[in-house]
Amino acid sequence: MKKIILAAAATTLLASTAMSAHAAPAKAATCVGCHGADGNSMVPNFPKLAGQHASYLEKQLKDFRDGFRKDATMAPFAKSLTDDEIKELAAFYASQPAK
Ligand code: HEC
């Protein structure tokens, strides 16, 4: 019995981890206009985020937020992000196929 409960718990955990890798985090709503819903932006001025490495995206967002990377258009959107939100956004865009 104990084994069955453990297996069920593990399955639920795996399923929710897999889902969270693909569902857009709430903060992504502010990024859609420039970077596209799945990180494939339509405009060349706005870099594609889809399929880039999560660790790279995470570093860029922190650099914008903390002023190490400067861009008047992008920086204001990074300013209010917490470390956790940045991690979620980076994981989300990294999991999207680049088109
Ligand atoms: C008003 C348009 C705009 C919005 C909204 C916007 N960005 Fe950007 N973003 C840009 C521009 C422009 C650049 C390129 C800046 C540069 O040339 O350094 C950029 C760059 C980036 C990069 C670096 C990409 C790379 O390849 O180095 C990341 C990561 C990023 N944005 C994430 C986000 C996230 C996450 C959001 C939402 C919280 C967001 N952006 C909202 C315009 C925008």
From TrEMBL:
InterPro entries: Cyt_c-like_dom (IPR009056), Cyt_c-like_dom_sf (IPR036909), Cyt_C_IC (IPR008168), Cytochrome_c_Oxidase_Subunit (IPR050597). It comes from the Bacteria. Residues 1-23 form the signal peptide. Keywords: Electron transport, Heme, Iron, Metal-binding, Signal, Transport. Residues 5-97 form the Cytochrome c domain. Coiled coil: none annotated. One of its GO terms (molecular function) is heme binding. Pfam families: Cytochrom_C (PF00034). This is Cytochrome c domain-containing protein. It comes from Thiosulfatimonas sediminis. The lineage of its organism: Bacteria, Pseudomonadati, Pseudomonadota, Gammaproteobacteria, Thiotrichales.
